[in-house]
Amino acid sequence: MSQKLLPKRLQNKLGRILFISSESGVNIPENMIHYGMNKVAMMAISNGLSKLTKGAEVTVNTILGRPTYSNGVATTVTKLAKANCLCVELMKYLSFNKQIQIHF
What is the pTM of this model? Predict the structure, then answer.
């Protein structure tokens, strides 16, 4: 899509292109390597296009979302907290503030 949109944006000397990615492009889950690979590729394209548009009034960015605290994540965090003799709130704080790595 950016291949189609970028030339017109550059011609008009104005515009924005936003990519939506996820943390899986930075911390690839072992059971979703294919998904992580696509997110890494998307961030690489965004980075390259942003360099290509340097000096133009066209910006290219990637929005990188954080993981959501789903029921599955809550269950895993609870199990990890018990296994590490920590309260769930402390485990949540440590894991979601990048103090420790949690591998699901």
Answer: 0.61
- Residue 104, pLDDT score: 45
CA distance 47 to 68: 25
Cα 40 versus chain centre, distance:
9
Q: What are 69-78's contacts with CB under 8 Å, separation 24+?
A: 69/96, 73/104, 76/102, 76/104, 77/102
Whether 35 is catalytic: yes
Pick the catalytic residue from 10, 35, 50, 64.
35
Q: Which residues of the chain have pLDDT under 50?
A: 104
Q: Would you state the pLDDT for residue 13?
A: 86
